[in-house]
Amino acid sequence: MMDRIFGATKNETNADKKGFYEAVKARRSIYGIGKDRVISDEKLQEVIEYAVKHTPSAFNSQSARVLVLLDENHNKLWNEITKETLRAIVPADQFEATEGRMNGFASGYGTVLFFEDQDVIKGLQEKLPTFADNFPKWSQHSSGMLQFVIWTAIEKEGLGASLQHYNPLIDDQVKEKWNVPSSWELIAQMPFGNPTAPPGEKEFQPVEERVIFHK
Length: 215
What we know:
The chain is α+β, with helices and mostly antiparallel strands. It has one domain (about 30-195): NADH Oxidase, CATH 3.40.109.
């Protein structure tokens, strides 16, 4: 069943292809999220583990790491750690908008935190010094692919999500609170929940100005 998250099988039909295209198109930033369980925690874990296992990485480094926070752990991330960290640095007269964003993320029931294991990257740099400067860049590429795969997959399961970047402000507190290995570098945070509001209108630049196609 998991082999059909994106409709990719050896006997792929036109309907399967359409399902994949629609899933890619439907993945949007959803900021209105709630705490209703759209899928079981077991199904969520299955989807995320499948994505981590099968998303490609440079030299098959498999440097991606993921921490999933649900319910009270999710609330602590946004209400106790991120909100209070920002309260200390955002001017008081501007904090109302910041607090509103944090409350919006906390209104969901879970967050996926994306990390890259720097020990793996350093090991590749030592093993293949010719490409040493590129491994940190390729690591980011791999993380971006994983973010997209998980984002699209959970959207297909009926969840809404957005991608946030409050690192490195919260890195140390996250590692201490959830016993994250010191070699894991936080890359992004993805709060999710049941969609409670549709995404905004999306404008597109002319695709012919963005793609060069030579026959």
